[in-house]
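Hi U.,

Before I forget, here's the chain from the pilot set. I'm dumping it here mostly so it's searchable later in email.
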Amino acid sequence: MSSFKLFSPRRDRTAAMPFVMLTVLIDMVSIGLIIPVLPALVGSFTGSQSDQAFWYGVVVFAFGIANFFGSPILGALSDAYGRRPVLLLGFCGLGLNFFATGLANALWVLIAIRLIGGALQANAAVANAYVADITPPEQRAKRFGMLGAMFGIGFIIGPVMGGLLGAISLQLPFFVGGSLAMINLLYGYFVLPESLPVERRRPFQWKMANPLGSLRALTQLQGIGLLVAVVALTGLAQFILYTSWVLYSTFKFGWGPQENGWSLAAVGVMSVIVQGFLLGRMLKHFSPRRLAVAGLVSSTIAYAAWGAASQGWMMYAVIFLNVLGYTVATAIQSIISSAADSHSQGRTLGAVNSLNSLMAVVAPIFSAPLLATVSHLPQGDWRIGAPFYFCMLLQGAALVLAFVHFSRQRSRAGA
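Structure:
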């Protein structure tokens, strides 16, 4: 791994939140740019709505399966060689992936490109490990919330820009996203400091970097137990939502890239408000466990409401009312991070990312057939919401498991 020396820091700086927050912001803007237009780009290679739903699921599957295998490897590499070189590798891969996607002239080329991009993309997990490196356990929920706010701002700016640029050309958002990823690469190389000191690094081991080994290690962390299943179920519901949102709103309301861009930006606005401003105040009154349970209740109801929405404005109403739903991922992630030691944050959070990637792989298996089944129905038909009703069931199951897990933890603490 001597090639990682190419990414050695140019200056001696102390790692701090502003550095990684700006990195994540640029990263998420570039990713958010392509969300409103990727389904339409897939549709440009197909002849019907049912084919579009199927092949869009294949494209998402390709990225997810590659990310499932790549994330724990990159997370373990960040434990061994530092966060910074792995982040730089991710930015480089992301930029090249976007440029290649914009130039794709056939469906199989698009699928191949997404496979390569998924294998190199672990920026979110490594950024979270970066934050864990510089933050004491009791402050991680708040810091993860700040990072989540940057994700939210990226999803405000990115999808709106993607929708506007996509109205000009379907390929344009990919070229702009690739340019932003290259800007992030330059920022990371010249400005971003390393967060993991040499004495806290752990030698790279292939047996710990494979996805099954990393997931096994995750389940063995003390106090985690059923939370692994909760992460899996909530992740599956979330990825079914992501893979269904644009096509669902197109089938049900006749939305295009611009309308979908604005709706996704609304999700970003709420993420910023909750995680950037409200979460810190909530944590003063409620533990991460209580926030996780309350958030699971809120998001279960939200999935049902999105599926039943008969008009476009109702989607926005649910987005803004689902306040507690934006706290679930951060609350659970802080619990898992606090259970891991300082030498294995990258591997642990890489395992969480790998588990989510596995759910991204599984999600199209459910969302694509459900969307294809209802694609012939007239606009406004309540049955088009089938993917969201399925998400409601998944989130409800996660709620039950989380409640059982935290009840057991309280009983053991009392004993």
